[in-house]
C-alpha cells in the first residue's frame, strides 16, 4: 500500500507539490493557533516538497533571520527567548534531518 502511494507521488510531481503546499499552510495555521499542532504539517510539507524546494528554503531563511533578530533584540527578555528558541531549533534540526534524508531516499528508491 505504502509503495503504491510513494510511486504515485513520485510520478505525479504536481500532486506532490500541491499536497506539500497544503500541508505547509496547515503547519503555519497550526503554529498560529494553539488548537492544532503545527509540526506535523511542516514535516509532511518537507517530505512532499523536498528539502531543496525553493519555497521551503526561503521560509527557512526567514525563520533563521527572525531567530537572529530575537537573539540581538534590545530587550533582554526577547534575547533570552531568542537564545532558547535557537537552541530548540538546533536540537530539533539535528534530530529530524537524518530521518528526513532517509525517508527521501526511501521514496526515491521505490
Task: Describe the protein in words.
- The chain is mostly helical.
- Helix content is 85%, strand content 0%.
- Helix 2 packs antiparallel against helix 3 and helix 4 packs antiparallel against helix 5.
- It is elongated and about 50 Å long.
- The N and C termini lie close together (12 Å).
C-alpha termini separation: 12 Å
Q: What's the β-strand tally? A: 0
Q: Residue ranges: pLDDT <50 for 5 or more in a row?
A: none
Share in helix:
over 70%
- Outline the biggest β-sheet: none
Order of helices and strands: HHHHH
Main features:
110 residues, mainly alpha, elongated
Quick overview:
The chain is mainly alpha-helical. The chain is built from 5 helices and no strands. It has helices spanning 2-11, 13-32, 39-49, 54-71, 76-109.
Task: Annotate the secondary structure layout.
Blueprint: H1 2-11, H2 13-32, H3 39-49, H4 54-71, H5 76-109
Helix pairs in contact: 2-3, 4-5
Amino acid at each position: 500500500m505504502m509503495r503504491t502511494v510513494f510511486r504515485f507521488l513520485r510520478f505525479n510531481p504536481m500532486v506532490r507539490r500541491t499536497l506539500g503546499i497544503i500541508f505547509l499552510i496547515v503547519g503555519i495555521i497550526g503554529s498560529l493557533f494553539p488548537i492544532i499542532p503545527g509540526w506535523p504539517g511542516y514535516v509532511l510539507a518537507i517530505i512532499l516538497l523536498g528539502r531543496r524546494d525553493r519555497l521551503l528554503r526561503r521560509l527557512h531563511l526567514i525563520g533563521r533571520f527572525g531567530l537572529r533578530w530575537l537573539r540581538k533584540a534590545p530587550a533582554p527578555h526577547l534575547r533570552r527567548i531568542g537564545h532558547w528558541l535557537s537552541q530548540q531549533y538546533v536540537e530539533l534540526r539535528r534530530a529530524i534531518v537524518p530521518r528526513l534524508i532517509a525517508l527521501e531516499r526511501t521514496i526515491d528508491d521505490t
